[in-house]
Amino acid sequence: MRIVSAALVAAVLAVSPASAQTMQKSLYDRLGGIDAIRAVVDDFVGNVAADKRINKFFANTDIVRLKGNLVNQICQGTGGPCVYTGRSMRETHAGMGVRSSHFNALVGDLGKTLKKFKVPAREQRELVAILAPMKKDIVTR
Predict the structure, then answer these.
(1) Class of residue 137 by CB neighbours under 10 A (exposed 0-12, middle 13-18, buried 19+)
(2) DSSP string, 40-59
(3) 80 near 28, Cβ under 8 Å?
C-alpha cells in the first residue's frame, strides 16, 4: 500500500506545479501578451469605426494615440508591464453625451473581436470585469 501511495503522491506532484502555474498566470499572459493585445485592439478599433451607432464619437480622434492608450490600459489592467498614462475616463468622455446604449454597443464590438480571436470565455469575462467599472465614468446620460 505504501508503494501505491508514494506513486500517487509522485504523480500528483508531477502534475500540480504545471496546474498551479497555469492558475497563477496573469490575464495578460493568458491573453497572449502585448502582441495579442495589440492585435485585439487593432481589430476592435476597426469594429468601432464601422459601427454607425458609435463611430461618431471617434470622428475627430487621433486613432494612433487611441490605440496606444487602449493597449496600455488593457495591458496594465490585465497584469502586464505597461503603464496607462492617458487621461481619466471621466475627463476623456466629459460632455460627449455617451449613453448606456452607446457603451453597450462598444462592449458588443469588443466581444465580436474577442470571439474572432477565439479568446476563451473565462478570459473574456475577466477582461470585461476589468473594463466594466469604467462605465460609470464614461456614460453621462
Answers:
(1) middle
(2) HHHHHHHHHHH-TTTGGGGT
(3) yes
Please give the average per-residue pLDDT across 125-137, as a whole number: 95
The 10 Å Cβ neighbour count of residue 114 is 20
The C-alpha cell at 30 is 493568458
Cα–Cα dist 41/67, whole Å: 6
Name residues whose C-beta falls within 8 Å of residue 67's C-beta, 6 or more positions apart in sequence: 38, 41, 42, 45
Q: What is the pTM of this model?
A: 0.81
Mean pLDDT value across the chain: 87
Confidence of residue 141 (pLDDT cuts 50, 70, 90): confident
- Please check the confidence at residue 9 and state whether its pLDDT lies above 50: no
3-state DSSP of 78-131: CCCCCCCCCCCHHHHHCCCCCCHHHHHHHHHHHHHHHHHCCCCHHHHHHHHHHH
Query: C-alpha cell of 2?
Result: 505504501
